[in-house]
Amino acid sequence: MRVRSFRWWFFSQVMSASGGTTQAVAQSWLVLHLTHSAFLLALTSTATFTPLLLGSAWAGSLVDRFDRRWVLLATQSAYIVLGVTLGAVLVAGAVQVWMLFAFAFANGCISAIDSPTRQVFVLELVGTEYVANAISLNEVVINTSRVLGPALGGVLLATVGFAPCFFVNAASYVPPLTVVVVLLWRRGWSRRPVAEEGRGRGRVRRGLAFAWRNPAIRYSLLMAVAAGMLFNLGVTLPLMTTRAFHMGAGGYGALMAAFGGGALFGALLAGGGPAWPSGRRVRGLAVLTGAAVCLTAASPWVGLLFAGVALTGFLSIWFIALANTLVQLRTEPGLRGRVMGIWTMVLPGTSPITSLLIGGVATWAGGAAGARDAFGLSGAALLVTAGLAWRALSDRGEPARSRAPADLAVVPAGGRR
After folding, report:
1. Does residue 410 fall inside a structural domain?
2. Side-chain half-sphere of 150: how many Cα atoms within 13 Å?
3. Measured by CB atoms within 10 angstroms of the end CB, which terminus of the chain is less buried, N or C?
4. Do 144 and 207 belong together in one domain?
5. Per-residue pLDDT for 12 more than 50?
6. Are residues 169 and 232 in the same domain?
7. Domain boundary among 155, 190, 225
């Protein structure tokens, strides 16, 4: 937070992320209001995340080719246009279900480009010396938005209806857009260009090949897929709430708050950790997270369920923040955009696939047992993938890093950021 440009970006992200979750609440409720179909509601999520699954690796190639500030200028502007357009359609009373699916798909296409760009842009703002702390603070942004966004969305839906939720989301992207514009024209802030290796065909394939050849990155991505099943809270927690513990909507909201509260503390703890996360710590946290998930799934009492969900939030965010940092710092500078595009592809891009897997397990087992099995599936997957990654994340042959490497992406004028 001592880096002024990052501080601007951080607070603007709190606003835009909260606006995004406000819109997500309204969009889900609107689909259900128009269709009364749980299947079509799930299909909206599929429309949103499929572009991330299929396009993030290619989008990462754009991140490596262009100045990230210009890419963010385009994506933030596109978010504003989408929000204003759908809000205007709702005001006019002309909304149809197919428009909501098209809007969700378009939003996913923008996110496929925006997400890896934001992750690499953070490194440019603070340099590799502070990237672990900055990535952890990004988790603070996400979990703060999980509290502020739904609360604001609920108030707006109850008082003024659907359209203002989309206008609020559009307005929430003005602050990050302003920050990007300021950084584009601000004197004294210069970006050291990343070496562009091999323009032309095969760029995406080179990023995929690099991620596969590096065992630590390969297994970190595999563990991210397993963690993605845990973060499908909109599928697993309602089942645990209703089938296993027979609670209502209030119980579901309280469980979400417990997870978010634990996750917030986990992100803050990760933010105060070392600048160069070790593979041993990442694999250890993966094991602890997997064990916490399995124990929570087996909780016999409501009190233990809430404690387990909070502990799971705490450990999982700590783990995923360090794994994300490890992947960024062990990637060659000229490939970071593509590798972080692959990260976006697996988390949250695989959500359409893992949601079906979780739903299938819950349906096959049925009842309370199915709910517990569906929730515990991610814990078992994390334990298995951590076991597979144990040797790759042993840090053997990896030099100790007490200072930032020499490839700092941002060179502030006069030594100040």
Report:
1. no
2. 13
3. N
4. no
5. yes
6. no
7. 190
Q: Which domain holds residue 36?
A: 1-190
CB 204 within 8 A of CB 61: yes
Decide if 57 contacts 113 (C-beta within 8 A): no
Average pLDDT, the chain: 82
Q: How far apart are CA 108 and CA 47, in angstroms?
A: 7
188 and 64 in contact (C-beta within 8 Å)? no
In this structure, are 206 and 316 located in the same domain? yes
In sequence order, what are the residues at sequence separation of 6 or more whose Cβ sits closer than 8 angstroms to the Cβ of residue 102?
none
Closest of 103, 143, 327 to residue 231, by C-alpha:
143
- Cα–Cα dist 367/401, whole Å: 50
Q: How many residues does the chain have?
A: 417
Which amino acid is it at 248? G
CA distances to 100, 115, 220, 378 from 55, rounded to whole Å, are: 20, 11, 20, 24
Burial class (CB in 10 A: 0-12, 13-18, 19+), 117: buried
| Number of domains forming the structure of the chain | 2
Give CA separation, 356 vs 50, 230, 244, in Å.
13, 13, 20
* DSSP bridge pairs for 191: 410
Q: Which residues, at least 6 apart from 94, have a Cβ–Cβ distance to it below 8 Å?
A: none
Choose between 201 and 70: higher pLDDT. Answer: 70
Where does the pLDDT of residue 219 fall: very low under 50, low under 70, confident under 90, or very high at 90 and above? very high
Residue 82: the pLDDT is 94
With beta carbons less than 8 A apart as the criterion, state whether 318 and 270 touch: yes
Burial profile 223-256: b = 16 or more Cβ within 10 angstroms, e = fewer: bbbbbbbbbbbbbbbbbbbbbbbebeeebbeebb
